[in-house]
Design goal:
It holds the Pfam family IU_nuc_hydro. One of its GO terms (molecular function) is hydrolase activity. This is Nucleoside hydrolase. The protein is α/β, with parallel strands linked by helices and 320 residues long. Helix content is 37%, strand content 18%. An eight-stranded mixed beta sheet has the order 3-2-1-4-5-6-12-9, with helices on both faces. Helix 1 runs antiparallel to helix 10. The radius of gyration is 18 Å and the shape is globular. The two termini are 21 Å apart.
């Protein structure tokens, strides 16, 4: 029996799709829901992409559409330059998708599922944190009912890794910093998979080509959607694509591949450093400050890259 019930909060997204495949094919994971949000594309597109992936690859989990923009009501910003206008690397997609989202909005689906399975559900959030913040606003008690929260987002300067949309901020947090700060304020156990580790793991073209050759339809699909995505990284001078969302998914079943640092986390919500994530490391004394009274969370600072890549490949080979 799977040992992890997971709600995947996502904005598909090329790397979101790659993480979804890991969740779908790993035997220890039961994907109990997919919730969508704004981010890599508008929520209409990210929801369509989630439904398309569900339909094409036989994923049982229901899809619930989520927030279209930040909790402040500000305009949403998207990442077409990275993922393409259709969010999936500009591959050809069908004009119509038969599968439909459920009527329940994403944040309420999170609440209802967590309450149905107290202490069992992991929230894996790899887009903006808007749906999580909305769930907390409607039902703050769910913070004590989740098993854990794992998020892909943020950058803490470890090994010199800073932001990817500004020198200070990573895209998922920058896209709704107020929601992220509310999420970090809640007394649920959060582990952060940020650029400090995801920029340390690269999938070079040879790795992706091998997946395309060996992992059947899903491997060929990954090869296709990463052509546009890979060009973005090659243009930046990197030797492959950074493994963002899949690293967070892999943490669920292989936390031993990561090293973490504990302490409360704040998000800068105005000014030059808008969207920056800052942790006050545990064990270091400071005068009274804005981190006081906030719960401690785990921020990943080291990763074993080759074992992570091996586990991803081994899992996807189960699709054949």
């Amino acid at each position: 029996m799977p040992s992890h019930k997971v709600i995947y909060d996502t904005d598909p997204g090329v790397d979101d799709a790659m993480a979804l495949f890991f969740l779908h094919y790993h035997p220890d994971i039961e994907l109990v829901g997919i919730t969508t949000c704004h981010g890599n594309a508008p929520v209409e597109i990210t929801t369509r992409n989630a439904l398309y992936l569900k339909e094409r690859f036989g994923i049982d989990a229901p899809v619930a559409r989520g927030a279209a923009g930040p909790v402040t009501g500000d305009d949403a910003h998207h990442a077409a330059v990275v993922h393409g206008d259709n969010g999936l690397g500009e591959i050809e997609l069908p004009a119509e998708i038969k599968t439909k989202a459920i009527d329940t909005p994403a944040h309420r689906f999170i609440i209802e599922t967590v309450r149905k399975h107290p202490g069992e559900v992991t929230l894996l959030a790899v887009g903006r944190m808007t749906n999580l913040a909305l769930a907390l606003r409607e039902d703050p008690e769910i913070a004590g009912l989740v098993r854990q929260v794992v998020v892909m987002g943020g950058a803490f300067g470890y090994r010199g890794h800073l932001g990817n949309v500004t020198p200070a901020a990573e895209a998922n947090i920058h896209g709704d910093p107020h929601a992220a700060d509310e999420m970090f304020a809640a007394a649920w156990p959060v582990t952060v998979i940020g650029l400090d580790v995801t920029h340390e793991v690269l999938m070079p073209q040879d790795y992706l080509r091998r997946l395309g050759e060996e992992a059947g339809e899903v491997g060929r699909f990954i090869w296709d959607i990463t052509r546009f995505y890979e060009n973005f990284y090659l243009d930046k001078g990197l030797a492959g694509i950074s493994v963002h969302d899949a690293s967070a998914a892999i943490y669920l079943v292989a936390p031993d591949l990561f090293e973490t640092r504990s302490g409360p986390v704040r998000v800068v919500c105005e000014g030059l450093a808008f969207g920056q994530t800052i942790q006050r490391p545990a064990g270091i004394g400071f005068p009274p400050n804005d981190w006081d009274g906030r719960p401690s969370h785990a921020v990943c600072i080291e990763v074993k890259d080759q074992p992570l890549l091996d586990l991803y490949r081994q899992t996807l080979l189960r699709a054949v």
